[in-house]
Amino acid sequence: MAKEVKGENVLYHYLQKALRTEDVWLYQMLVARLVVSLGVWFPVDVYRRLPIPLPFVVRDTKCRRPVDEWGAPDANGYFRDDNTMIKNLPKALSVGDSHFQEYRGRRLGTGFIAAHIWRETTEGALASRLAPTNSFIPNLVWLPSNVAKLTDAEGSFAQTFVQEISRKLYADEEVSEPMRPFVDEAWSLLPNQRDFPIEGLPDREELNYFSVPDKFIDSQVERIRKVAAGLEARGRCEILATKVQSSRYTEGLRALDPEAAKALSDKLHGYLEAIEASVPPTV
Question: What is the pTM of this model?
Answer without folding.
Answer: 0.93
